[in-house]
Amino acid sequence: MLTAKIITFGISKGGCSKSTSSGITSYLLSKEEKVLAIDMDGQGNLTSFLTGEYDICNAFEQRTILEAILNEDSRSYIIKIKENLDLIPSNDFLATLPRKMFEKGLNLDALQKALQPVMEDYDWIIIDTPPALSEQTVMPLSTYSEAGSYAVIMFDGSIFAYYAIPKFLEIIDGARERYNPTLKTAGILFSLIDARAKENEVMQEAIEEDYPNLKFETIVRRKASTRRIAISGFERNSELKNALEFYNPFVEELKKRVQQKQPQR
Ligand SMILES: Nc1ncnc2c1ncn2[C@@H]1O[C@H](COP(=O)(O)OP(=O)(O)OP(=O)(O)O)[C@@H](O)[C@H]1O
Ligand SMILES: [Mg+2]
Fold it and tell me: What is the best residue among 8, 11, 13, 17 to mutate for testing ligand 1's pocket, by most ligand atoms within 8 Å of CB?
């Protein structure tokens, strides 16, 4: 039976291309397989990226991942983006999640419960998280799937992000121990990398030495056309091929990595 593989994009450093990368990955995977994208960040950037809607407070009022989690059933909160691609949106009210979870006595397996009824409807569940090691990041990592649950750690080559990586790996270890024994790190994805910056090679060597085999071979370079997808969208976008130059090989690599039998870490 079909069960979704879960891929959570994260890092506690802001602006490392989590939303952009999870959005593009969802789009590319949906060309051949069924994808559910989930926005776990109240900024709603993935929501805007995939829907083109920026007035998220009104547009998705009470129709978000917040309500899906609190009602322990995501089915009524899924919106169709296009053939094979669905989304559970978020908006600013996601900030109330911890308080409301506390009031309802919900635990870190609340997202798992919300997704259970739809787990078999998709090949992939792609989750964007906020730049924080909060419930909104821990819950996706705690969500188990028979087909596998994976984290992609986003890295922008900065020293801030470099020091955020071990903290994220600790959160992964914690989620694995408590809720999700088969959780794996799919890899560390270099993104927003300037072709000319001198420190990049040093960073690449450092990551390869610190975390052998975790670095994705594909390096996503900074490109104006990639940034502009948030404005132009995927349909009738004349520069899309150029914008996706680094994401096509990344998604192929991701697929290969999650099909491997032995754990990455
Ligand atoms: N490959 C790229 N080339 C150029 N610009 C990019 C690329 N990837 C992301 N960006 C831009 O960089 C900025 C940060 O990206 P994004 O919002 O995806 O990061 P994030 O990690 O989700 O941020 P946050 O931590 O706030 O959620 C955005 O303006 C985005 O459009
Ligand atoms: Mg984001």
Answer: 17
